[in-house]
Design a protein that fits this description.
With about 240 residues, the chain is α/β, with parallel strands linked by helices. It has helices spanning about 15, 20-25, 30-35, 60-65, 80-90, 105-115, 210-220, and strands at about 5-10, 45-50, 65-70, 95-100, 120-130, 145-155, 165-175, 180-190, 190-195. The structure holds zinc ion (ZN).
């Protein structure tokens, strides 16, 4: 069995600077995500963080990554543009990308979306009800019927300035009344991208079973299909042109 090689990338700044975040994720958000993904025998999981050389995303690492997971927030600007371009190229060549929560504003996600990716927000801690609006989608496999709830989250609300997703798997409603497209699938050339909204750093969202199920499913969905490399440009006629 060929394993799906996953790299969990985390900015890993909040956990070092803010005690309230370190209290929730003492080893960093990346380690929490890597730990639950590691329970899936079909996955081979590694981590990378911003402050490593080349942000931990050397050519060697990227070329050996089938699916890249991205969490970032306070230091989007510190991500080198050259690394952003390499990640985008890998996605176009087939690498899967899962952008979590505040990664909506990461350079990588905005580069691949081509829009501002801006939204409304409110970090007061309120209930999020994640509606499963495409229950037959592989990313929704194993989830409760209709919806699941996260007791405390940051609110993200529409308008969320993203391109119309190829598929919307989840829509979230918040106790304060806002809604947002919270599970969005995109295809970009040979690569698949999934944006998943929950995951604010001061809440234990990544320890919640349903959230772990979504991210694990998304890794399998976003894995490259191993098909032939695409060829573009001038194309000879396959049949005589009448
Ligand atoms: Zn947040």
């Amino acid at each position: 069995m060929t394993k799906v090689r996953v790299t969990v990338w985390n900015e890993y700044r909040h956990e070092k600077l803010h005690q309230e975040v370190a209290d929730v994720y003492p080893q960093g958000i990346h380690e929490t995500i890597a730990e639950f993904l590691g329970k899936d025998a079909e996955l081979e999981v590694a981590t990378a963080t911003l402050d490593e050389p080349e942000h931990g995303l050397t050519d060697e690492v990227l070329n050996a990554t089938d699916v890249l997971i991205w969490w970032g927030h306070m230091a989007h600007r510190d991500v080198e543009d050259a690394v952003v371009e390499k990640v985008a190229k890998r996605v176009w060549d087939g690498m899967g990308l899962i952008a979590l929560h505040s990664a909506h504003f990461s350079k990588v996600f905005r580069r691949l979306m081509g829009t501002t990716c801006d939204l409304k927000w409110r970090a007061e801690g309120e209930k999020e009800r994640v509606w499963v609006v495409e229950p037959s989608h592989p990313i929704a496999a194993g989830l409760p019927k209709d919806y699941f709830e996260i007791p405390l989250e940051e609110m993200y609300g529409e308008r969320f300035d993203i391109p119309a997703p190829d598929e919307i798997v989840f829509i979230s409603w918040f106790a304060g009344g806002n809604v947002v497209r919270s599970g969005c699938c995109y295809r970009r050339n040979q690569g698949k991208i999934f944006y998943f909204r929950p995951g604010h750093e001061t809440f234990p969202t990544f320890f919640q079973e349903e959230v772990q199920t979504v991210i694990t499913n998304a890794v399998h969905w976003a894995a490259p299909n191993k098909g032939p490399k695409l060829e573009f440009g001038r194309s000879e006629a396959l049949d005589p042109i009448q």
